[in-house]
Every structure is written in structure tokens, then in C-alpha cells.
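Researcher: Sequence of NADP-dependent succinic semialdehyde dehydrogenase follows. Predict its structure.
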Amino acid sequence: MAIATINPFTGRTEQEFEPHTDAEVEERIAATHAAFAELRRTSFAQRAEWMRAAAQLLEDDVEKLARIITIEMGRPIKGARAEVLKCAKGLRFYADHAEEFLAPEQLDDPSAVGASQAGTRYAPIGVVLAVMPWNYPLWQVLRFAGPALMAGNTGLLKHSSNVPQAALYLDTLFERAGFPAGSFHALLIPASRVEKVLRDPRVKAATLTGSEPAGRSLAAIAGSEVKHVVLELGGSDPFIVMSSADVDRAASVAVTARNQNNGQSCIAAKRFIVHTDVYDAFTRLFCEKVAALTVGDPLDEATDVGPLATESGRDELESQVADAVAKGAIVRTGGFVPDRDGWFYEPTVIEGVAPGMRLHLEEAFGHVATVYRVADREEAAAVANGTTFGLSSAVWTTDPDEEDWFVENLDAGAVFVNGMTASYPELPFGGVKDSGVGRELAAAGIREFCNLKTVWKG
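Model: Prediction complete. C-alpha cells:
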């Protein structure tokens, strides 16, 4: 894939970028390694001052950044603007809480281990490589970079090749905010050159958000080098609606849960698992609301759904739906490529998806929703857990016993009750099974790339 801004609304290439040479990559790794020696010696208070300055820069540049996001990957401008502001909030969260999250801890009774004092403390580990996707081109990066730099680490970013302008903005953000030169650098390189960077002894760990195959590849390389990784991979999140649910509210939220960011979100609800008693009512409302979405120019404030980010992504979605229909599934609304420029696919609801269809097990990375009818909570959980993924989940019920039962029995990194899955700086984020390992955000996220050091004093 060329390193280029290709506008998904028009399909036209707007700007191309030369990859960094081997010499330029070496220069950036060396600078980031040198910056670690300086940054780790600074105080939390100093880092927090710089981090708040970075948050302010994001807010000052919100309109410019929102436009970059929209032009590079097609996200409707309202959502792009919200992403920038969420990033600023996330950076401020870690500026406020990093010292608390990484505070030393002491045993109440050190004599139990034969010591006068004993406990733990957190220490930064060095340069961390982030391999990031295009779908949230700022948030995915900054939810790593904020805690990593507040812990005293430095970062290298290999961003997706179709969002180079976002990558180059992030390349200078932290230095502009006051962090030591080299604290964070972007590498404009293709995926084929990631392995060499990861094997560099100056790079101590890696984090990747992206596809399952990409995660497996990076983890294999890191494992051979005995380097820690955090992986946030795909998801096929269930959205369960039980008979006691507020069906009107669930259907309204379901539309946003599936179609946010043009449906291109790992944590977007993808499989709608509905109790038979409310199946017809929910599906009718859901289809009506999906059909009413405004599809169009993502720079238009009135647009709800824009184009898919890439032509290949649009074609993959079309292929998954065609496979399901050929094997007996029924399209309730949408299900076609409209006759217009750009990489559009009509928002779609499809039912009758069954084993043997690609949509039953694969992640649909775009605005296609599958609806399943179930008889009880046991069947709902069986369908929900019946994939290799386990990122997040949502359950709609007003029965307290049912709420607790689903929280206990769903195989996922998160369960949202009577709401849609979202990521918050205050809560840990990550999955199980093929959805990844490790956690981002909250205290867990900042501790992932720290050495938890035991300290014993006689």
C-alpha cells in the first residue's frame, strides 16, 4: 500500500509521501532512545505540565485535525471532531492520575518477608513501538502515547499507510508541547519494515491495534525477542436484547452502536441477538432507523454515514454479504453498493445468518448488522460466545438476575448493561480469545509498559 492520502469520498489520491529511508528510521530510533534517558529522570509534575500542553494543542487544532481525519478515512466530521476532543480529555486524564497509578506500594507487615521495608515500585522500560490502524487515527495512538510518556517511556509510531497526515501531526505533537526532542516519533514505513524496527534492541516492547493476522505476526516476532506486547485485535461484539428490555431505547442505541464511525470500529456492535418475544418489534424498529440514516459527504454536518475508508474494505464487506445471501440469509435493508463515486456501501441489516456463512464467524468491518432470534438467555449466551472473538458486549434487560448472569457468562473483555460499548480513559479496555491480550486505559494501561520492581530492605 502506498503511503498516501486517498479521499474515500472521491476515490482520488490527494497527497503521496515518500517512506522514510533506512537512515531516517535509524535517526528516529536513536533520537527516541536518547530521549528516554532524559524523560525518565523528569518528575510526574513536569510531564503532566507538558501533557496538558499537548491536550491544549489538540483543542486548538480541532477543526484542522477533524478535517484531516475525515479526508483521510471518511469519518463524518461530527465524529472526527469528537475524536479530537476525546484525545485531549484522555491526555489530561493521565496528566492528572499517572503519579497516583504508579505510586510505590509497601507491605503492611514487611517482617513477614524478613525485611524492615518491602514493597513494589513502577519503572519505565524504554522505547515502545506502536503499530496503529486508520479507523481512529488519533485516539488509537494517543490512548497509548499519553500513558506511555507519563510513565517516562518514549514512543515510536508506525501508523497505517492511508493516514499519513495524521501520523505526521502526531510526530511533532509532544515536542511542540515541551517534551524532550525525540520523545515520540512517527515512522513512515510499510508493514514489511516493522520487523526490523521491533527487533532493534533499543525497542523494548510493542503495542498493536489491528487485525488478528497482524497481531499474531507481531506477537511472534516479539516473542522471539522476549519483548512484551499489548494487542487489541478484532471483535464481533454481541448486542443482546432480552424480553424485559426497553425495546425502543435498545433499537435507537443499536443504530449508533453498529454505524458509529461508518461501522468501522472493533467495538461496534455487530451481532444483534434478540429474544423471540421482542424480536419482531426490535427488528422492525432497528431496520426503520437504519434505513433513515443520511449517507453522503462526510464533510457535511448532516451526514450520519460516509464511505468506507478503503476500496478493499468496501469490496470485502460486499463479498461477505453476497456470501450470506447466496447461502440463504435475508437482507432486511441495504445490502448493496450505491451508484455513486467513492467507497460507499448502504447501511445494512441482514437476518438468517447461520454457520457456514462468512458473516457468522468473521468480523464485518463496516455498517452491516446481523440479527439472530433466540429463545432464552442460555441460547443468547451460546450465540454470543460462539465466535473466536471476545472484545466487548452489550446486554439489554431490566431483570437484575439476568444482568448478573450475563456479566458472569459472556466471554468478553467488557460487558455493558443497557448501553453501548465505548472506551473511557477511566476504565480498562481490551479483549480475550482472538481479540487480544493486555489492557489499555485506566491504571492497567499505564502499568503495561512498566517494570514492576520488587524492593526489599533488611
